[in-house]
Amino acid sequence: SIANLKYTDLLPHREDAYETSKIFLQKVMDILIDFIHATNNRKEKILDFHHPEDMQKLLDLKIPEYGVNLQQIIHDCSVTLKYQVKTGHPHFFNQLSCGLDLVSMAGEWLTATANTNMFTYEIAPVFILMENVVMTHMRQIIGESWTNGDSILAPGGSISNLYAFLAARHRMFPQYKEKGIASIKGQLVMFTSDQSHYSIKSCASVCGLGTDNCLMVPSDEHGRLIPAELERLVLERKAKGHIPFFVSATSGTTVLGAFDPIPEIADICEKYHMWLHVDAAWGGGLLLSKKYRHPRLTGVERADSVTWNPHKLMGSVFQCSTIHFKEDGLLMSCNQMSADYLFMQDKLYDVRYDTGDKVIQCGRKNDIFKLWLQWRAKGDDGFAKHMDHLMEMTEYMVKRIKEQPDKFYLILEPELTNVSFWYIPTRLRKVPHSHAREQDLGKLTPILKGRMMQAGTLMVGYQPDDRRPNFFRNIISSAALEYDMENYMEYKLSKVKA
Ligand code: ABU
């Protein structure tokens, strides 16, 4: 029995441990497959919620002086998944990354088994070539003129956006790399909409501009940046002698799913010689849909850089984030440190395949295999169908909400798969909509969410924004969703006492 065995009975500690190792791994695999089964069962709870202090009592998390046996290790795996939120459950609408794509997940399993680092071709030859192929394909989807650009996978959309900022500053001030901040005579300023992801503002803080020099451009009632306001703020800062250099447009804002008007923003960037970044971390997947790409992402090929996260709309297993540049060579010249223990120029092979010196990290996780494998399985056509399905599900949900104005209040017509709404409890159904009623609905929203989490039946995000108190943000980005979902949501919301 594996209760009598320890890690020292597994490969590579014992040469004769193949059978034991296989039994151990198959037991782990059974637990994983049971979790996948439960994840896809609508009758299963999404989570078994406990407050942190209670959860700690349910778990044995301590690190022992002497290692536990393999039976305990199997038990630990099982308990961990027992309390994990099933983010691939059909009733999980909580994050921008929902769902569990089995091919992508299989890719992640293989990735863990290969256990390599993406910094050199030397130790990741197949994965480096895959990265080349997939990144080129993604750039071609952005625009034909991007084929000879450059791209890299980064640990999340925020870091992808940071790469865009760094490249923009490097192109305008190449001496910054060696001479630092003193080499820039003047105050750099950047612009993004007041609906953009906070990582854009974070670039200003991390990179020495200060957040006061990240101008939050007002957005319209749909959450789209207003180009005239952008130009006004650029001129305002120029009049102060500042140097406007970077604009980040958002294609799919985090809360409302709005798409900024890229062509108008691109015109302003050209006029004032500013870098145009498009943060399409969330909405980039729609580039794969003939039906929904335009007008949302029209003009994206005019950008200098684009962030696009396959772990969001495309459903790749978390995490998988990409950053693309129209111009080749910038990433390398901006970030290269030429560590001579890794990036020797006299290697056996063409060292242009060593991508590690393009990035600010050293060790880089392999996030490409799961995406390559998923794309092989789906093809462009499968991804296009996936996007169209998500958008159709969104349209269906919006239709169902509109059919029941007494129970639901739709906050705006979504451009993406963010459905923003209030659930109206019985006591407020006859009350005319007003600021006071919004305040009541805003107070109720987290209570409803909490109750549904405690019941384990439904997870949907909520937040306030600068215009309204708490409201639900229902994200449709999981392939597990079918047409019953809104009926289910209506049912669950009506069951929690409001
Ligand atoms: N990076 C934005 C993720 C936000 C969300 O999943 O809700």
Structure at a glance:
By secondary structure, the chain is an alpha/beta fold.
Description:
The protein has 498 residues and is an alpha/beta fold. The protein has two domains: 2-86, no CATH class; 110-374, Aspartate Aminotransferase, domain 2 (3-Layer(aba) Sandwich), CATH 3.40.640.10. The protein is built from 14 helices and twelve strands. The chain has helices at residues 18-39, 52-58, 70-82, 102-114, 125-142, 157-172, 176-179, 198-206, 227-239, 262-271, 330-335, 368-402, 435-455, 485-495; strands spanning 92-93, 150-154, 188-193, 214-217, 243-250, 275-279, 305-308, 321-325, 408-410, 418-423, 459-463, 471-475. The strands form two sheets. A seven-stranded mixed beta sheet has the order 2-8-7-6-5-3-4, sandwiched between helices. Strands 1-11-12-10-9 form a five-stranded mixed beta sheet. Helix 10 links the parallel strand 5 and strand 6 (275-279). Helix 4 runs antiparallel to helix 12 (368-402). The longest helix is centred in the C-terminal third of the chain and has 35 residues, at 368-402. The radius of gyration is 25 Å and the shape is globular. The mean pLDDT is 96. The protein binds gamma-amino-butanoic acid (ABU). Gamma-amino-butanoic acid (ABU) binds at residues 95-97, 157, 254, 461.
